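Query structure, 314 tokens:
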């Protein structure tokens, strides 16, 4: 059996298990440090003229050296000891995954809503979304929680797994750093419209295939017919080419309605509808989490089967 094939499955399993067992590092998390670096770079470079070029240079400056460092490290370790190299790949995957974080940030919102503790639910929801939650009602908070789970299932889990399979730890790092910069810079505002364009477009490109695999997985594990229908008819209305398929298919799979009005920076934004059926409630947040968890299990299972088959027939 070729260890290189089997190692992919082992590293994926180890990375996912580490994430579910340990969760995010509470101190010295690499992505937190990267975010602080990105803030400082943006403040220095997002000034004056030529902001598109400045944004492209900033992306290269903060992403490529770190990706090159992880590639050099894993390559050098592979020449020294393959088992140590595999362990480092799995550790990089762990740091890039956010599966348990999704659970830990969203299920408390569901508990607060089911306990009729609206102030606590508003506080918890404000920690994971950029929309205004100060006057939000139960359906608004439940909708925000479900949408966050569905979209970040791709951003924090499945896109990371996809690029890990393609390029190991450095691939996972590239995807997560690009996704983080999109979340920080990829806004269509006067400040970021030009500067963040490169970050947004690169994230769109890296997420294109994983997002559609995520949408397909949601559809297979839920109401398949409705998920496919919502994906086909609703996704084109969303400005994001990747969030549209993921969230519309997820909402259809859960047979609930998402999208609609949300408040950003004091202004009501009317977003396209997602899904079909009753409006989301607090009970739908655990259902969305189960869909993400089942999709993770499906992906890990498929990766293991492909790796085993590849090893047997190599």
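Result returned for the query:
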């Amino acid at each position: 059996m070729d260890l290189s094939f089997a190692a992919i499955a082992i590293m994926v399993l180890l990375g996912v298990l580490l994430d579910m067992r340990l969760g995010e590092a509470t101190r010295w998390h690499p992505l937190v440090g990267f975010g602080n670096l990105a803030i400082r770079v943006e403040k220095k470079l997002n000034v004056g003229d030529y902001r598109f070029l400045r944004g492209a240079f900033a992306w290269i400056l903060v992403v490529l050296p770190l990706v090159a460092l992880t590639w050099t490290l894993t390559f050098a370790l592979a020449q020294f000891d393959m088992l140590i190299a595999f362990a480092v790949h799995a550790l990089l995957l762990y740091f890039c995954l956010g599966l348990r974080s999704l659970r830990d940030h969203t299920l408390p919102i569901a508990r607060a809503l089911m306990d009729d503790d609206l102030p606590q639910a508003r506080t918890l929801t404000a920690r994971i979304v950029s929309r205004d939650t100060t006057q939000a009602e139960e359906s608004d908070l439940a909708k925000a929680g479900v949408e966050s789970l569905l979209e970040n299932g791709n951003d924090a889990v499945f896109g990371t797994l996809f690029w890990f399979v393609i390029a190991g730890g450095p691939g996972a790092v590239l995807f997560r750093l690009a996704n983080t910069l999109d979340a920080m810079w990829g806004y269509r505002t006067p400040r970021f419209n030009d500067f963040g364009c490169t970050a947004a477009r690169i994230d769109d490109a890296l997420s294109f295939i994983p997002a559609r695999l995520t949408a397909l997985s949601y559809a297979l594990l839920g109401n398949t017919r409705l998920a496919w229908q919502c994906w086909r008819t609703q996704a084109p209305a969303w400005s994001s080419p990747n969030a549209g398929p993921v969230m519309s298919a997820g909402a259809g799979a859960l047979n609930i309605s998402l999208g609609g009005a949300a408040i950003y920076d004091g202004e009501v934004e009317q977003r396209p509808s997602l899904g079909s059926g009753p409006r989301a409630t607090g009970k739908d947040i655990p259902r969305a989490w189960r869909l993400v968890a089942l999709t993770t299990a499906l992906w890990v299972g498929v990766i293991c089967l492909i790796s085993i088959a590849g090893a047997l027939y190599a």
